[in-house]
Each structure stands twice: as C-alpha cells, then as structure tokens.
Amino acid sequence: MVKLLRRPASRYFGELQLSLKTAPADPLILFKDWFDLVNQIDPEWANALTLSTASSTGMPSNRIVLLKSYDDKGFVFYTNYKSRKAKELEENPHASMVFWWKELYRQVRIEGTIHRVSEAESDTYFQSRPRGSRLGAWASKQSCTIANRDNLAQGFTQFENQFKGSEVPRPPFWGGYRLDPQVIEFWQARNDRLHDRLRYRKAVDSGTKTTSTEIWTLERLSP
Q1: How far apart are CA 110 and CA 98, in angstroms?
Q2: How far apart are CA 188 and CA 175, in angstroms?
Q3: Fewest CB atoms within 10 Å of the CB: 46, 66, 129, 213?
Q4: What is the pLDDT of residue 56?
C-alpha cells in the first residue's frame, strides 16, 4: 500500500472564508476577486481548468484547458473543432469546468451550456498567439492517431514553408467555445474539514409580460 503524505498547510488555510452575508449577488464579482488573487500567486497556471464533457451516450471525459477570457456572457477557451472534446460538445452542449487553486485551498466549479464564439472573436485571439502555436494548430489533427512524432514534425514543416513570409491565418477547424454558466460553486477549505461552499444558481425573473431578466440565487452547502 502506498502511503500518501499530507501536504504542508498553505499560509491561507483556515484564514480565508466564505459568508452568505458578505458574498456579492453576482458570482462573477467573487470569481474576479479569487482569480485576481491567484494570478498574483501563480500567474502561469491560474487559468488552468479541468473541462468535463460527455458524449451523446453519456460517457464522460476530462482534460486540462486554459481559460482565455470571461465576462457576464461566459467563460471562453479554444480548441480544434475536430478534437474529441469538440465532437462531444457538438453532440451534447452541456459541460462543466473546475478550477483548483492549491495555494489558496480554493476550488470553483462551473456548470452550463456551450456554444461557439464568433469567427471574428476566434480570429482575434488566434492572431495573438505565438507564430509557432499558430503553425502547430494547422499541423495537429488533434485526437487523431498518428504513426510517430515525425509525422507531426513533418506537418509542422509543411505549414511553416506554406506560410513563410506571410501571416498564419486561423484554420477553419479551430476556434473558441464559451460556457454560459448556469451554476457556479465556490469552495474554500477550512479547519476540521468544515469547509465553506457557496452555490450560485441562475434563474429567470419573469418581471413584466414583455421583459425578463436572469438573476442568481445563492445558498450555502454542507461540505
């Protein structure tokens, strides 16, 4: 049997907390507070998240992707539209994200529906990537079986020569997705495993006969 060693306690462990009384009505305000803090501590990996998708038959799969932007419309990441995750998202546009920020003993879980971002938005982001990453997007048939790494390198060289002396355009099979959150849960570790969990759930306020607005309900969960 392998014995797992306890990690040294974070300097934040037990000090940070979540309260219904002080939590903002909009979960994006709280997310920004947490995200800005972890960016100061670990700017390289603060935007890493686990993306969970499921096929049309319900078979789940997970992988790490990087959050590239977020706003009141949702959380955006980019990928090859022919990859496994993309195919599953086209079959079943429901997904979840999990951020784990170990330095702060914090976790954020987000559940919602997925749709593609506009081509213009994908174009803008693609051109911000390093040239090598843009060429790699053309060369990689993501999630497909290849005989060896040489095939991948040869593909890269092919497109390097093809676009030599010119801009590398975005491949038509590559772009972004936006997760429109319906549930956002914030988890903060506390002493004695009595952790804080606050869950925001999106609801629709019918308002008048002609207008309706989305509102968030907030509740505390037992750890």
Answers
A1: 6
A2: 33
A3: 213
A4: 93
Q: What's the mean pLDDT when you consider all of the chain?
A: 92
Per the residue annotation, which of 63, 106, 193, 199 is the catalytic one?
193
193 is a catalytic site residue: yes
Find how far residue 175's CA is from the centre of its chain: 14
- Output the pLDDT for position 15: 78
Determine the Cα–Cα distance for residues 21 and 35; give it in Å rounded to an integer.
21
CATH number of the CATH domain containing 100: 2.30.110.10
Please tell me the pTM assigned to this model.
0.90
Q: Using CA atoms in the order 179, 181, 183, 189, what is the torsion angle rounded to 10 degrees?
A: 70
Percent of the residues in the chain that have a pLDDT greater than 90, as a whole number: 83
43 falls within a domain: yes
In total, how many domains does the chain have?
1
Between CA 136 and CA 154 the distance in angstroms is 11
